[in-house]
Design goal:
three-stranded parallel β-sheet, single chain, 6 helices, globular, alpha/beta
């Protein structure tokens, strides 16, 4: 594999890779798929959120009063519907006060362009960090459109977090939004298939999160 793009961080922790392998397995059902996706999101989230600002407060510890840091601001999680919903609980478990926006986009299978059907952010999303989440990042057109919408809403501190990323999508965001860093657990530099899917990944993540299709062999 060629040198990784500068706008990309790939998590190669063995526990993350172990769980990603099971996401790809056609025998992994919807419930287990969602559980694995949440666990992967939690493990990735520690690194993705490491630059959140903090402030010091005084609290009464068992033996004395201490001054200790807490988060200085909330952050906003923005899942790209519908598959991105599978990553929300993992990030919210790290900070229950995090807010959630939603971007509804689907990819037209004929043109491979993103079509918007819903968009809503918390009123103060622009005041803090925004983390866009979507498990599979293939052509990049949906993520590109989501970033455009979020920037038009006034947000400037934006990151994108996925589990599977393809070279085509990473290169698109590098060109159109070089200020947005991408975090993924698995990167593929292979061409996409004719429908714009990553071959060495988990298939349609939205279908697998929602249980609307199965890749298991029919008996």
């Amino acid at each position: 594999m060629a040198e990784l793009p500068t706008n990309l961080t790939v998590f190669d922790h063995p526990l993350i890779q172990h769980k990603v392998t099971h996401l790809c397995d056609i025998h992994t059902g919807s419930k287990e798929f969602c559980e694995l996706l949440t666990e992967i999101t939690v493990m990735m989230g520690y690194e993705v959120l490491k630059d959140l600002p903090t402030r010091s407060i005084e609290v009464q510890a068992p033996l004395e009063k201490i001054v200790s840091p807490v988060l200085a601001e909330d952050f906003t999680i923005v899942p790209i519907l519908r598959a991105g919903l599978g990553m929300v609980d993992g990030l919210r478990s790290l900070s229950p006060t995090a807010k959630v926006g939603h971007v509804g986009l689907y990819r037209d299978e004929a043109t491979l362009k993103a079509v918007q059907y819903y968009f809503k952010l918390p009123v103060d999303a622009a005041d803090g960090q925004v983390i866009i989440v979507d498990p599979a990042f293939a052509t990049g057109v949906s993520v590109d459109a989501a970033i455009d919408l979020i920037k038009k809403a006034g947000c400037r501190r934006i990151k994108f977090m996925c589990v599977f990323a393809a070279r085509q999508g990473v290169e698109l965001i590098a060109r159109s939004h070089p200020d947005v860093h991408i975090y993924t657990a698995r990167y593929s530099d292979r061409p996409l298939n004719e429908k714009g899917y990553i071959l060495d990944a988990a298939g349609d993540a939205g279908d697998r999160v929602c249980g609307t299709c199965s890749y298991k062999p029919q008996v």
